Amino acid sequence: MASTVAAIPSLHKAWVYKEYGAAKDVLKLEELPVPPLAPDQVLVKVHAAALNPVDFKRRLGKFKATDSDLPTVPGYDVAGVVAKVGSEVSSLKQGDEVYGDISEFALDKPKQWGSIAQYTAVEEKLLAIKPRNLSFIQAASLPLAIQTAQEGFDKAKLRAGQSVLVLGGAGGVGSLAIQLAKFVYGASLVAATTSTPKLELVKSLGADIVIDYKEKNFEDMPERYDVVFDAVGEPKGTNVVKEGGTAVVLTGPVNPPGFRFVVTSNGSNLVRLKDFLESGTVKPVIDPKGPFDFGSVVDAFCYLEGGRASGKVVISVL
Ligand SMILES: NC(=O)C1=CN([C@@H]2O[C@H](COP(=O)(O)OP(=O)(O)OC[C@H]3O[C@@H](n4cnc5c(N)ncnc54)[C@H](OP(=O)(O)O)[C@@H]3O)[C@@H](O)[C@H]2O)C=CC1
Ligand SMILES: CC[C@H]1OC(C)=C(O)C1=O
Description:
With about 325 residues, this protein is of the alpha/beta class.
């Protein structure tokens, strides 16, 4: 798909913080210069951007040792239209509808000028053509979370016919991890933990066993799993791993045989999932409190930071 692109202004609106702190204290909507383009980058007119916990952890200074310089425009996930291409860009052209995670390494010098803005500059290799059946809102919800699930299962060497437990099944990553495990990697059994109000959502995503962690402890159940995908950060997952299995840990402490990793972005990862997305086999999950409008980003972060989001918190930027 291609869209028409208006003239590019020299200034644009962006959410920015100049010091680390709470969203309500430091996050402001300001007019900034449109980011300059490197030769291998494209300028994206942002239609939608999604929030991730790494955005608020970063804004609280938890990764300052490896962060890019302040001031910071937050936002990793973007969906929009290519407005301009750098001199070395070969695979994208003006008008292409694209999506992606704009920071190749989530914690190591992530983009200073992020996606919660009217324009963002990003290397073509980090983007993919938006699936034609998905809205910009739906597409923006996917990149960082779906690549995290994909990379975690790849590193765990998940094979068809194996069993998976997803801890945090209703969250941004967990809601996609259930679907990928079941429909992309061919797991024979997918179990997931969530709380009482989200049991039906998690079952609808393909979980064969839904564990209400408010009522039951998965460690007390008889099942053991080839792969535990821990999107919660309690180190209990390794206690239910089968002999020879592993635990993928996204955050917090790790015990053997588990491992933790940090997601790496590449548009080719999204291309691998194109058919699953365009066929509707794997579906975006957008928290019903959203999408939030561009003026409500502080509210959106406050909601995400409450830790109860179902699927992804998305911002409509147009
Ligand atoms: N290492 C990496 O590269 C990455 C790490 N992460 C990290 O992974 C974690 C998850 O990210 P993301 O999914 O975006 O976060 P979300 O904010 O989307 O997770 C919210 C969800 O977590 C669920 N949840 C919270 N506690 C529990 C629990 N004890 N058991 C089951 N479900 C629970 C909530 O459900 P309920 O209301 O039912 O409790 C809610 O649905 C974050 O800490 C994030 O920083 C994320 C992406 C990449
Ligand atoms: C080390 C985990 C850290 O990296 C990302 C992307 C997060 O969300 C984290 O908490």
